[in-house]
Each structure stands twice: as structure tokens, then as C-alpha cells.
Specification:
single chain; alpha+beta; 6-stranded antiparallel sheet; globular
């Protein structure tokens, strides 16, 4: 069972990651978001930052649909994310190993080639096939 602190530890362990000040968590690489806390919106009510749900970059619609259909207990979406390469992750439904895999894959898809080539990026493994 993962939580917001686990997201923070995993994300900040990745090279060139920056945490953006927010009411929850928000991580970027080269100004590109790859994981952040879910800003739940209910019509007529103020936005609520959910620390128990992460928004995760997945790269494309095919990967998004595969996650949504294959593991609906973990992944879901809302109308506001329709057409975007993003899924919502129930943190309590994933363990630390799976969270690490998901966040690292999201980071790999967002990190620019110029930053990937440094020794830290190369240490994270081959980029081929990840979200491409």
C-alpha cells in the first residue's frame, strides 16, 4: 500500500526531478509533469487535492486503455481527463515496487533526450519501448 510520501520519495530519486509547490505533490522533469496529486473537482464546490490518488502520465491512449481495462481496481479516469494520456492511480491499491515502476516509466516518457543521455539517466535502463 503506497501513499503520498512514497510518491515523493520515488519521484525525487529520479534525476532532474523538481517538485513544484502545491497543496499536494507535483513532480516535473524539464517542466513536464509526470506525476501529481489529483485535484478533484465537484461542480459548485471548491477543488479538493486528493493525496490518496495520483495523476500519472502514461504516454498514449493505447497504454491508458490497457491500464484502465486491465486493472480497474488500481486505475481510473474522469471526464476531465478524456483524451489525455493520463490515468488516476489509487495509491492504496499499489505496493511500493509497482509505484516505483509506474512513476519511473512516466518519468522516462517525459525526460528529454538531452537529459536522458547523462550517466544518471542511463543508469535507469533502456528507454526503448517505454511509452514510445
Amino acid at each position: 500500500m503506497a501513499d503520498a510520501d512514497d510518491v515523493r520519495r520515488v519521484a525525487l530519486a529520479l534525476p532532474h526531478t523538481v517538485e513544484i509547490a502545491s497543496a499536494g505533490f507535483d513532480f516535473r522533469v524539464a517542466d513536464k509533469g509526470f506525476v501529481w496529486s489529483y485535484p478533484e473537482r465537484t461542480p459548485g464546490k471548491p477543488r479538493v487535492i486528493r493525496l490518496d490518488i495520483a495523476v500519472l502520465f502514461v504516454g498514449d491512449e493505447a497504454e491508458k486503455q490497457a491500464l484502465l481495462l486491465g486493472e480497474p481496481e488500481i486505475f481510473f479516469t474522469t471526464p476531465g481527463y478524456q483524451g489525455l494520456p493520463l490515468v488516476l492511480v489509487r495509491l492504496a491499491a499499489v505496493d511500493l515496487d509497482r509505484l516505483t515502476e509506474l512513476v519511473t516509466d512516466a518519468w522516462r516518457m517525459r525526460v528529454p533526450d538531452a537529459l536522458w543521455g547523462d550517466s544518471e539517466g542511463e543508469a535507469l535502463g533502456d528507454r526503448a519501448g517505454v511509452g514510445k
